[in-house]
Amino acid sequence: MAHHHHAPGHDEHRSGNAHGHDHEHLDWAELAPLLESQAELFTPLYEHALAWLAKEVTEPGLIVDAGSGPGVISGLFAETFPGARIVAVDGSEPLLERARARAGRLGAGDRFATLTGDMPGVLAELDYPADLLWASRSIHHLGDQGAALAACVERLAPGGTLAVMEGGLPSRFLPRDIGFGRPGLQARIGAVEEDWFSRMREELPGSVAQVEDWPALLTAAGLHHTRSRTFLLDLPAPVPDRARAYVVESLTRTRDMLGEYLDPDDRATLDRLVDPDDPASVHHRPDLFVLAAHTVHSGVRPV
Ligand SMILES: C[S@@+](CC[C@H](N)C(=O)[O-])C[C@H]1O[C@@H](n2cnc3c(N)ncnc32)[C@H](O)[C@@H]1O
């Protein structure tokens, strides 16, 4: 069943309603190519995170990727844990179609399955308890994050691990001073994004206000041995073309979705930055970089 009420998260790409005063709507399937290319660019970060998990989670039989999107990370799980079966769960069937195609290309099609439906409820349809349940940037799209974590824990085998990727730092692409406009543009965009994120959460069905203390939330959901670690994507200048394309896409979406919340000077700076005809735009600048930090919080279900 397709799900039609999601909005993108924090430092994710945005699209859809440019006048999001009262409805931060997003069609996930429409974002498929973007989610996929972004996750591919972030592969080194995910590989580090998975290697960290692999030190603790030995020979999992079943791994569930909850809110997998197009399944780039699901595919990395298949590679990191060659003995495991992987189930990718998402509300968007077109995204899961991509996940299955990717698993096939990786030669893991025979130990890869998908489950389509609305989280957290759909998790109850999993046939077997998971040894490792991963949810990256998906829990924050659910109205009641505490209840969502509890539903995840419910699906864990005793001794199983839940790992959620949530929070970290806002990504940086540009020096503080880019030679025009007021320095510090990305920090001010970040402030606008925080407000957008709050509105997005408030408009979710069954939205519950929550202190975003992920270790405490994991503990409250019944997990032990909670720990958190942050992983970097560090692509210094000069960046490869696909990193440049990601920055172009990301700032273009910021302008389209959030431009109205920036002051006119910053809006003009952002317009220049995404204008392919401007030699100082992110299409051409030599100083472009990608520095991103995402945090993984994990905990273990008591035996
Ligand atoms: C930001 S994407 C994250 C994708 C992937 N985990 C990653 O980190 O690249 C969020 C995903 O959660 C899914 N999602 C959001 N709300 C959902 C819900 N209520 N039920 C099922 N899936 C949902 C979306 O379809 C989307 O694929």
Describe the structure.
The chain starts with 31 loop residues before the first helix and ends with a strand. It has nine helices and seven strands. It has one domain: Vaccinia Virus protein VP39 (Rossmann fold, 3-Layer(aba) Sandwich), CATH 3.40.50. It has helices spanning 32-41, 43-56, 72-80, 93-105, 145-154, 185-202, 214-220, 241-258, 264-274, and strands at 62-66, 85-90, 112-116, 130-136, 156-172, 224-235, 290-300. A seven-stranded mixed sheet has the order 3-2-1-4-5-7-6. The chain is an alpha/beta fold and 303 residues long. The structure holds S-adenosylmethionine. Residues 1-23 are annotated as: Disordered. Keywords: Methyltransferase, Transferase. One of its GO terms (molecular function) is methyltransferase activity.
Task: Outline the secondary-structure elements.
Layout: H1 32-41, H2 43-56, E1 62-66, H3 72-80, E2 85-90, H4 93-105, E3 112-116, E4 130-136, H5 145-154, E5 156-172, H6 185-202, H7 214-220, E6 224-235, H8 241-258, H9 264-274, E7 290-300
Parallel strand pairs: 1-2, 1-4, 2-3, 4-5
Antiparallel strand pairs: 5-7, 6-7
Bound molecules: S-adenosylmethionine.
Residues 3, 6, 9, 12, 28, 35, 39, 67-69, 73, 90-92, 95, 118-119, 136-138, 141-142 line the site of S-adenosylmethionine (SAM).
GO biological process, one term: methylation
Biased composition (Basic and acidic residues): 8-23
Organism: Streptomyces variabilis
